[in-house]
Amino acid sequence: MSGASPLVFVVDDDLSVRKSLTRLLEAAGYLVEPFGSAREFLAREPHLGACCLVLDVRMPGLTGLELQERLVAEGRRVPIVFVTGHVDVPKSVKAMKAGAVDLLTKPVDAKDLIAAIQRAVAKDVEDRSAETRVAEVRQRVKLLTVREMEVFALVVTGMLNKQIAAALGIGEKTVKVHRARVMEKMRAGSVAELVRLADEVGVIVPKS
Amino acid sequence: MLEERLRFEALLSELSAGLIHVPATEIDAALASGLQQVALFLGVDRAHLEEYVGGEPTVRLTWALPGLDEPPSVMDVDQFPWSSDTLRSGRAVRFSRIEELPEAAAIDRASYARTGTRSKVSLPLRAGGAMLGVLSFGSVRRRFAWPDELVERLHLLSQAFASALERKRMELSLAERLRFEKLLSSLSVAFSHLSAGEFDREIQRGLRQVSDFLRADRGSLIEFSRDGTTARSWAIEEWMDVGEFPWMTARLQRGDTVSFSQLEEFPDEAAVDRQSYLAHRVKPQVAVPLLAGGTVVGGLVFSAVGTERAGSDELIQQLHLLGEVFANALSRKQTDLEAQRLRQDLTHIGRVSALGELTASLAHELRQPLTAILYNAQAAQRLLRADVVNLDQMREIMSDIIADDKRADDVIQRLRVLLKKGDPEFVPLDLNEIVGEVAWLMRSDAIVRNVPLSLDLAADLPSVSGDRVQLQQVVLNLVLNGLEAMREPHTGPRTLVIRTARDGEGAVRVEVQDSGPGIDAKVLDHMFEPLYTTKAEGLGMGLAIVRTIVEAHGGKLGAVSNAEGGATVHFTVPVETEGKQ
Fold first, then answer.
1. CB-CB: which of A20, A59, A60 is closest to B372?
2. Among A12, A23, A83, the residue to mutate for chain B (most B Cβ within 10 A)
3. B378 vs A60: CB contact, 8 Å cut-off?
4. Segment B323-338, tens digit of pLDDT
5. In the prediction, which pLDDT does A1 show?
6. Cβ contacts (< 8 Å) between A60 and chain B: which residues?
7. Does the pLDDT of residue A208 top 50, yes or no?
8. Shortest CA distance to B133 belongs to which of B60, B228, B184?
9. Do A20 and B400 count as a contact with CB atoms less than 8 A apart?
10. Which of A86, A108, A132 is the last residue of a domain?
């Protein structure tokens, strides 16, 4: 995104692995922040820029998978590259389903690891821009009045003004006024565009 | 004349009656006195009694006027062939002049003349058809007539002497047999409870006892191995290498008894043996094979140096009986060795299977340093591409790589020690160190199981005497069991504590405390028995092996359910005492 190097968090309980991995990633041009345990990482405030997490699966205390669960639960979205000693299929599946970018087996070749980190950072950047846009559309929705919100929800289902008026028990003219306001506040040029915006933020509230 | 005859008859009947009541040990003295009385009565100047001893004629009792030489044995076939034959056939030899002897006795005549014998009467001493000896009266100073009547009386005397000799022999052989039976039973008792450590010493003692009994100079026990090639031996006095006696060894291995009294008896193919016997100055020898379950397991060999004593049938029979006792000892030793080997195998299997449970975590232990090495090496590769290389950083990377390499090697070494199969070696050990090593080994496994492993080690523990690997195995098994116990779904904290402490003055105690469900009272009674298991996939050997090891160390093993939940299993090992044997 910006010109700043992406930040790579390394969480591994083994000092020599942590130290050498940090060294390798720094040599590859990343900013690295190492942590000796999952709890130490959780204690750090969320990073705003592009980043990813290289996480050891097996650790004392909170394991890698448990850390992943906690991050998901707290809504902290960090792309994770798991590194594991041996491939445990059920655990791998669980990690990938929970959104892990990759799961690599130790000892990991630098090329594979860096490729995985690049993918993770790219995903983070992409996720972040999508997130920014959604946040903006949400802001527009917040400008709508309750009645406009009702009209918006029905318009995007494809109902005609007459049908909307009947459904809401108001006049057709009034529907037209509200509809125009919705289009204006949502900065939508057409009904089709309005439908796409509604889709992005998930505003659809069908009354059936 | 009549009066003299009556006096002689009275003397004879008195002697005969006296001999019947004399105890066996005094028979020789009674015979000597009788011999003298008769000689004096007859007025002869030489009288003697020869006896067969060990198949050889020996002059046992002699009476002679002062200044006269001891007479030669008339049963010596070389000097007195005719006399010897005559006596053996049960007849008396009688002459008042040498010339009276027949032509056939030419050699005898010469021998008598050489020894100055002028007149002589020799009577065979026979009992139960066996030749026991000869009674002789002779004269060197003057000729002596031997009237029939006198010879008849002397025959009566010879009968009384013969029965006394026979009684002596029987009683002596009975005493000998008793001595033999005592020897046999004392050896059987001594060999019946032989521990491996006592074996050599007791065998030596047994050989010594048998040698004393046989009056042999050397004795040895040879053990043949199963394949019949190599052999081991125990001996009293310096004994020779089995390899020096190929012929005898081969015959023993075939199950033959080898007995000789003279080296000349050896066949040509025994040339090597003969040389060795000559070199060791061994003359007579008897060797019997030892049989156990129909196979020859060894041999028992006794020999005398110098004197030539032949092995009689009776001796060989006795040796066969003694051989059985030695054979039993040998085969029991082999059984014990096999049992010991089996126990060792089992302990080894137990250890391997315990380590098998740790495979995943041990692989992890090995993979960590390897991963760090690879990361460091690849970091170095990248850093070396830069225009300016930071040498300090490179040095740091290199030393980290070396440290991790050592760490990986350490894992392999520790594993190798645990997987090693060998004889237990008792050395002074620090149990805290043993516990520490096992904790290190288990660290990763405990992490996976999510059980914190904590150590509570007493300071200043005295050393114990034990086998490092086996005691590690005991701790390993107990820790694995504790972790296993906590696999059961249960609430409450999951902790495993390994504790060391002194157990009185004489022992050190190691406890493994878990926070699992505890141990059922029913299980407590049986948990250290072989094949007892509560696990579906368990063999029930883990704790039984633990018990075997602890008991072999002279320690005790026990388990309790804790009041606060969980179980504690403990074992003790006696403190090492310096200078103990």
1. A20
2. A23
3. no
4. 888 888 888 877 777 7
5. 40
6. 447, 452
7. no
8. B60
9. yes
10. A132
- pLDDT 10s digits, B406-449: 989 888 877 777 776 667 788 899 999 999 888 887 777 787 77
pLDDT of residue B580: 45
In a domain, A56, yes or no: yes
CATH code, domain carrying A177: 1.10.10.10
Last residue of a domain, one of A72, A104, A132: A132
Q: Which among B367, B379, B447 is the nearest to A20, CB-wise?
A: B379
pLDDT at A175 exceeding the cut of 90: yes
**pLDDT score recorded for residue A41:** 93
Q: Does one domain contain both A82 and A15?
A: yes
From A58's Cα to the closest Cα of chain B, the distance in A is 7
Residue A114 lies in a domain: yes
A54 shares its domain with A99? yes
Is B379 in contact with A27 (Cβ distance < 8 A)? yes
Does residue A52 sit in the same domain as residue A78?
Answer: yes
- Closest partner residue to A17 among B372, B403, B448, by Cβ? B372
Expressed as residue numbers, the domain containing A123 is 7-132
pLDDT in tens, A57-80: 888 778 888 899 898 888 888 899
Q: Across the A/B interface, how many CB contacts are shorter than 8 Å?
A: 75
- Residue B517 CA to residue B250 CA, distance in Å, equals 66
Residues A25 and A62 in one domain: yes
Whether A87 and chain B come into contact, CB under 8 Å, resolves to no
Distance (Å, rounded) from C-alpha B338 to C-alpha B347?
14
Q: Say which DSSP state A4 is in.
A: S
In terms of CA atoms, which chain A residue is nearest residue B449?
A60
Q: What is the ipTM of this complex?
A: 0.72
Nearest CA to CA, how far is A104 from chain B (Å)?
A: 12
Which residue does chain A place closest to B390, by CA atoms?
A27
Is the minimum CB–CB distance between A28 and chain B shorter than 8 Å?
yes
Token duo for residue A66: 């448990």
Residues A159 and A181 in one domain: yes
Among A26, A86, A107, beta carbon nearest to B371: A107
The reply to whether omega before A107 is within 30° of 0 (cis) is: yes
pLDDT at B229: 62
Q: Are the C-beta atoms of residues A102 and A52 closer than 8 Å to each other? A: no
pLDDT at A105: 85
Q: How many domains does chain A have?
A: 2
Query: In terms of CA atoms, which chain B residue is nearest residue A110?
Result: B378
Give yes or no: residues A97 and A36 share one domain. yes
Q: What Rg do the C-alpha atoms of chain A give, in angstroms?
A: 24
> Phi and psi at residue B64, in whole multiples of 5°?
-155, 155
Q: Which two tokens stand for residue B468?
A: 């490092």
Instruction: Match 């150590």 to its residue by tokens.
Output: B455
Same domain, A115 and A148: no
**Angstroms from B562 CA to nearest CA on chain A:** 26
Residues of chain A positioned with their CB less than 8 A from the CB of B369: 16
Residue A185 lies in a domain: yes
Q: What percent of chain B has pLDDT over 70?
A: 89
Give me the CATH number covering residue A91.
3.40.50.2300
Assigned domain for A2 exists: no
Residues B375-391 pLDDT 10s: 999 999 999 998 888 99
Q: Which residues between 101 and 160 in chain A have a beta carbon less than 8 angstroms from any beta carbon of chain B? A: 106-110
How many angstroms separate the CA atoms of A94 and A102, rounded? 12
Single-letter residue type at B174: L
Residues of B in contact with A110 (CB under 8 A): 374-375, 378-379, 381-382
* Rounded mean pLDDT, B521-542: 64
DSSP symbols for B154-211: HHHHHHHHHHHHHHHHHHHHHHHHHHHHHHHHHHHHHHHT--TTTHHHHHHHHHHHHH
Q: Residue B368: its chain A contacts at CB < 8 A? A: 14, 16-17, 85, 106
For A24, the closest chain B residue by CA position comes to: B379
Q: How would you class A117 by CB atoms within 10 Å of its CB: exposed for 0-12, middle for 13-18, buried for 19 or more?
A: buried
Residue A174 and residue A108 share a domain: no
